[in-house]
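User: Structure please.
Assistant: Input sequence and predicted structure:
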Amino acid sequence: MKYYMDIFKVLFCEIDKIDGDMPVRDGTKKPLIGVIDDGTKTVRFVIYEAENSAELATHHLDKQEVFPQEGWCEQDPLEIIHNIRVCAETAIAKLPELGYSREDIVALGITNQRETTIAWDRLTGEPLHPAIAWNDIRTDSTVDAILAKIPDRNKNYLKNISGLPISPYFSALKMRWLKDNVKAVKKASREKRLLFGTVDTWIVWTLTGGPLGGLHITDVTNASRTLLMNLETLNWDPMLLRLFGIHRDCLPTIKSSSEVYGTVKDGSVLNGITISGILGNQQAALVGQNCTTAGQAKNTYRSGCFLLYNTGTRRVHSTHGLITTLAYKLGPEAEPVYALEGSIAVAGGAMKFLRDNLRLLQHVAHDTEHIAAQVFSTGDVYFVPAFSGLYAPYWRKDARGIICGLTAFTTKNHIIRAALEAVCFQTRDILEAMNKDCGMPLHKLHVDGRMTANTLLMQLQADLIGIPVLKADSTWDMSALGVAVVAGMAAKVWNMDSWRSVQGRTHTYLPTTTHDDRDARYTKWKMAVQRSLGWATTKKSITMTGQSRLDDRHHIDSRRISIFEAIDHVENRRNSILECNFDSNNDGTIAYEELLKYAARKFSLINTSKVPIVERTILDDAEFFMNKKECDYGTCECCSAEKKLQTNWESIEQIIDNDPEIIFDSDNFAIVVEPIKDKSKGPERKVNGNLKKSLSSSNLTFCKAISEKLLDSP
């Protein structure tokens, strides 16, 4: 019997060795890393063995996107958390049959859709508004308003600080929109209960305790997508915070991409696991593709398309429409690594448009390649999928989608093939810009994402850019793998140096067209792009430009009329919308000017001063702040405290928060509502209808004192 048992053991071991799906090879276990991957449309939980790029166990759930209006896109933050917990439970439940248990998970990494913005209540943990997705363009008017105050309406005015153009794409504009348009957000901000963050911040805060001590943090890659972080100091920039009106207390603390942040404390299956890695999904894909050396690049094909070019520790400020972003920072003391990025708003989304809107196909993954392969060209048809404007390198939010070059012989096959080529042409747009910015043409392009399963698309990409395209064989999604690497590195179970030397198996697509042919087709594409520009027009923001539009047909020139002409116009057009109690000692102009000067920071209905009021803004000091270095922000070790830039943010924020609110009562009289005061800081002032007071000379003096203090602040 013992003889047969020994034979059985030998046979069992041999079977175990040749079973590639079974991770336990020699009876020893490797540590496991769990990954939360929140994408635009799905939430995944993936488990990896340390230093093994193959997915051990995974589960995903789709999430609902809501489109309240044209160009708006929202998600439910609570659904994101729910899906994470369900996916984690399901994936972890698969571990016992693979020879592992939940206790073998030693680290947790988080990778997320970037720029998607969430506002929530610090005390209750409840979202104050649905998450505004990265591809939402509701902030068009806010962008116009900001540009109206920028010299020459230059959308690249802030790129030297943040690396980003002023675009609806980035989180600062979404935060500003929420503060301007959502009452719950306004109230929470006034009462110091407001927290802002990208999706990674929301996930970490919720998992680590939420209202009961949750960590309000983000990493440098996500912070670099907000339009609020200084690329040099890797901290929130004072000028940008003041320009967009975002309080520093609302924002998370910026951390590196690989360090131990804390442990999960939400009572779920993940409870007690250490969180040690955070990366935006495209930066995570860069690490997952092993593009960790300067000069390497990767492209991810999803709903959108994102091409990142590693520039090492050197910040390259693009002059050809690209953005400068953080690639990663592997530890608190590590040097940051930067990248140039080109973002394409619509890639896989164009295929879904052909399926859902035009009904040209039924199944995106199968039909797209099958139908497009039935024709040998697009028949000179070009499709520009600028459904919500064009991102890099054009940054034209007024662009809209077009299909041009149609003839009587055009079929749906040609249109579908043109949609595939549009993804490739947009990628070439970005590569052309990168070549001009870096002066070093790319020699190969690493690719990942769901769309890379389409072999026709990959071959078209190689043909239209003229360089080899390399697709990893191990997995289509490199984002989860990339953040698993940095999380394992912080947990000391994944060696980053050995990872850099690993060369996984890839499938290579080589160009098969001539240089002249690809250039001729690219020239036609540029012609199609030009025809897509200028279709959309948006109204300028009244609140932030300081201009008045009392109705759609009449516009008051606020710099040329007097107070009495303005009031007469308002009375005639809107039946006395605005009335003021003037001081009996003068004709009313001075009192009204005091009100306007106080309220200029929030809104300006009519500027009636006979002598133009010079309104000082942060842009007056723009050049001063742009020329500041790390020493001046107080983050260096080389300067004494006396030489560092001293800015008392606490006093400035206190002044702003304690401003009385100017509103108009039912009789259209201007009134002041005092803010709620903390009992510990002085006598309590009740805020109710009985204590609302009409503007008197004493109130105006108070307003004047506040405004002068602000105007004289650093």
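The domain at 297-474+498-532 is CATH 3.30.420.40 (Nucleotidyltransferase; domain 5).
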